[in-house]
Known about the structure:
Layout: E1 2-12, E2 16-19, H1 20-26, H2 31-38, E3 42-45, H3 52-66, E4 76-80, H4 91-99, E5 105-109, H5 115-128, E6 134-142, H6 152-155, E7 160-171, E8 180-188, E9 196-198, E10 211-213, H7 215-236, E11 246-249, H8 254-264, H9 275-278, H10 285-295, E12 304-311, E13 315-322
Parallel strand pairs: 4-5, 4-6, 11-12
Antiparallel strand pairs: 1-7, 2-3, 6-7, 8-13, 9-10, 12-13
Helix pairs in contact: 3-4, 7-8
The site of acetyl coenzyme *A (ACO) has 23 residues, from helix 2, helix 6, helix 7 and strand 12.
Amino acid sequence: xLYSKIIGTGSYLPEKVLTNDDMSKLxxxxxxxxxxxxGIKQRHIAAEDEYTSDLGAKAAIDAIQSAxxxxxxxxxxxxxxxxxxxxxxxxxxxxxxxxxxxxxxxFDVQAVCSGFIYALTVAxxxxxxxxxxxxxxxxxxxMSRVIDWTDRxxxxxxxxxxxxxxxxxxNQDESSKPSGILSTIIKTDGRxxxxxxxxxxxxxxxxxxxxxxxxxxxxxxxxxxxPEVSLEAIKKANLSPSDVNWLVPHQANVRIIDAALKKISIxxxxxxxxxxxxxxxxxxxxxxxxxxxxxxxxxxxxxVILMTAMGxxxxxxxxxxxx
Length: 323
Ligand code: ACO
């Protein structure tokens, strides 16, 4: 049977860092409030001339090198982003040109913070259908560009960054603990459209759009939907929660993650946490955390990984894989 095996990972974080103390000079906030409510200590912010495509291209090159491949070996690029460089063309097309992966088809996937889970699901479907062999999946965001920097209730939560993985088609025997993606589930409920959104967009005609959020509603739904879909995905992979070695959750808020891991019965020490250094990087947060824990020798080959996210839409989903 065909599996989508992860053969490389990469990441990139912009140089500039804003600590909570730095934030307290911009808005009426403080380190204690931000840390206790969210777990965030700092966030990376893209330079003025640095765009989502720049972050994504750097993470992509890192992943391609870690897989021991060349850009021309990639036949599909899927970029998860909610902060594209331009409304069109796709930022994936720009990344394809930047990294010179000219044998690939490239497109964007928009599912906000769940974007990486959606993109992995699409990539896995392409591989299983025999329509792609080597897929570069990127999550890249410049959330700092869609934040209202005068709104203390949202501007402290987000950061910029990019992460990437390379998936490759691999024929393996189902009965022999295959490595690769074992199950994916993605869901949407558009009735929550207004709970987390930008105030405007291209079709609405306004030039500049900012993030708006009903924090309490997001909190309530995230703490119920992420565990629910995770347990479903574990079951779909014919595993149980005790088989999971690492939870790699979307890094939105430490309290959301704590509530979720308790409901899935995964110990906190088996959870990849990078929120204190990265803040919420939307679609980039899972691949950033995943790459960080691999490069720090915490996640090892053979480990069973559960990834889960929830984002605007609402969208949510989980992926179970053996690394
Ligand atoms: N610094 C200091 N005080 C603040 C700040 C701040 N940065 N932001 C808000 N406050 C104040 C509010 O004005 C309010 O003051 P008041 O009581 O005088 O009116 C008080 O703190 C409490 O505000 P709440 O909004 O009720 O705070 P809450 O406890 O709900 O925490 C938070 C807010 C952290 C956003 C929480 O709702 C949450 O975690 N929601 C989840 C949202 C999230 O993580 N979103 C990320 C994007 S979505 C995603 O990725 C899934």
